[in-house]
Design a protein that fits this description.
The chain is 31% helix and 26% strand. It is α/β, with parallel strands linked by helices. A six-stranded mixed β-sheet has the order 5-6-7-3-8-9, sandwiched between helices. Strands 2-1-4 form a three-stranded antiparallel β-sheet, with helices on one face. The protein is globular and about 55 Å long.
């Protein structure tokens, strides 16, 4: 991995056209820690994550790195040397193998003629193995299932070897075994000193994998801190509009469960 990087975003405002979607968000991703973004659909989680890549340029606010660099001063190649992102949806190119997709992750590390990358093949092999797709390396991506493709694109992010990794719902389309394995990879990245930001819908998974949690509602950060501080029954019930119970098991793990649908009083 490259040198760990701290990412600090201050007062980010992100818009689609004239409509603001994320309002004055401040968030920090620390090396060696997993920061999980949670919130109901439409709360701005994915938009904020894309904003942290700086490819969705904020209309207001600043993104800075631990070495003093500012995202606004960097070109796309320089940003890709610092931040890798797994989006919710990726194209499925025809006639391209799994290995070729994973090799895409090496583009910011190649020379200007895109030929010199002596460490690339070994790094690609490790990324394939880490995500469990090494046996699919020579197969066309178009032949794979949705869950297999998800792991292939994650392998491409790992091959990019950045100090910051952003993952938007990485367990989507995966069966239970691979959900567990992907979350293990997330923890492994943090243990290697990477700053990880991840959007998760499953609140139990969020509580289990997070060092830090951020709760968004209507494009605003309403709580940030440790999972125990953020993932409370009161906060989550208000955010999601259902009654949510939060318990702690004998091992100290949080468990989040909706108890019932909140009834809306009948009109008088």
């Amino acid at each position: 991995m490259t040198d760990p990087q701290r990412l600090s975003a201050t007062d980010l405002r992100l818009a689609y056209g004239r409509r603001d979607v994320v309002h004055d968000a401040s968030i920090t991703l620390e090396p060696g820690r997993v920061t999980v973004l949670v919130g109901p659909n439409g709360s701005g989680k994915s938009t904020l994550l894309r904003g942290l890549t700086s490819l969705h340029r904020p209309s207001h606010g600043v993104i800075a790195y631990g070495d003093g660099a500012f995202a606004a001063d960097l070109d796309e190649r320089q940003l890709a040397q610092r931040v890798a992102m797994l989006s919710q949806s990726r194209p499925t190119p025809s006639g391209v193998t799994v290995r070729e997709i994973v090799e895409y992750g090496r583009f910011p590390h190649r020379g200007r003629l895109r030929r010199r990358d002596p460490e690339g093949p070994a790094i690609v092999d490790r990324a394939l193995a880490a995500t469990g797709v090494d046996d699919l390396a020579e197969r066309p991506v178009a032949e794979l299932s949705g869950g297999q493709r998800q792991r292939v694109w994650l392998a491409s992010c790992l091959a990019q070897q950045t100090g910051i990794v952003l993952l938007d719902e990485p367990t989507t389309y995966l069966d239970l075994r691979f959900q567990v394995e992907i979350l293990d990879i997330v923890r492994d990245l943090a243990e290697q000193g990477v700053a990880v930001g991840v959007v998760l819908h499953d609140l139990d998974q969020a509580a289990d994998v997070a060092d830090d949690a951020v709760l968004l509602v209507d494009g605003r950060i309403v709580a940030a801190g440790s999972p125990r501080e953020v993932l409370t029954a009161e906060r989550l019930s208000a955010a999601y509009g259902v009654d949510i119970d939060v318990t702690t098991d004998m091992d100290g793990h949080l468990h989040v469960r909706p108890t019932r649908r909140r009834r809306v009083p009948a009109a008088a």
